[in-house]
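Hi L.,

As promised, 2-oxoglutarate oxidoreductase subunit KorA:
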Amino acid sequence: MAEEEIILMKGNEAIAHAAIRCGADGYFGYPITPQSEILETLTELKPWETTGMTVLQAESEVAAINMVYGGAACGKKVMTSSSSPGVSLKQEGISYLAGAELPALIVNVMRGGPGLGTIQPSQADYFQTVKGGGHGDYKLIALAPASVQEMVDFVSLGFDLAFKYRNPAIILADGVIGQMMEKVILSQQKPRRTNEEVIAQCPWATTGKTKDRKPNIITSLELQPERMEVNNLRFQAKYRVIEENEVRFEEINCQDADYLIVAFGSMARIGQKAIEIAQEEGIKVGILR
């Protein structure tokens, strides 16, 4: 079993290591710059030989997100990753995950757009992410790392929140954080959950291994308008609970600031340096990320 380690690595590589260490059951993805190292690193590490984690390159982004849907329906800790145009292709599946209340982790290492755009870093998917992204009025649990260490930490946190609220979570990382190299602390290896633990922790899951129980049905389809309205009201109530209990932010030099920078990801890092320069010139600036 892997012990705690301190290693220098890219943000994308950190995602892969963190997924294995937190006991993930499966990763289903498709290569696209600037996040391809996530899939490459998982393949090089061969976790199927150590923890039993499944790693599969799907034939497309659409196939990958639907594989995630299947794994999540079974109560498994499954994830996918992509970059901006690839995440757009996954949006129907992400909406289905939200509608069926399935926990899953998505990683978006953003690049510039619109269209095919560029492989250069961007933060242009912010509005897409915080408003849900696909069809229907749903929300994702969004985590925005500003360091490679946070890339590591947010994998475990993303899974925890996704299962706590039965809702997809997304790590919204820009290409700078994905390609940046920093020292990280990798936690000790956690074992994957046993089938018995999945059954106990996820009574809604389609495990197929539970006796004396009515079959579970996983679906986002509701043909009765009244019940669809009830479902949507329940979703909105859940999102309010998440907002009330899970919002995370950092305030830097905000106590007596005359100006405030609001930023996330690599821009928050740049903003911290900017306020240092501003303070030397007597300008009171704070940053909220």
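The chain has two domains: 5-186, 251-288.

Thanks again for sending the construct details.

K.
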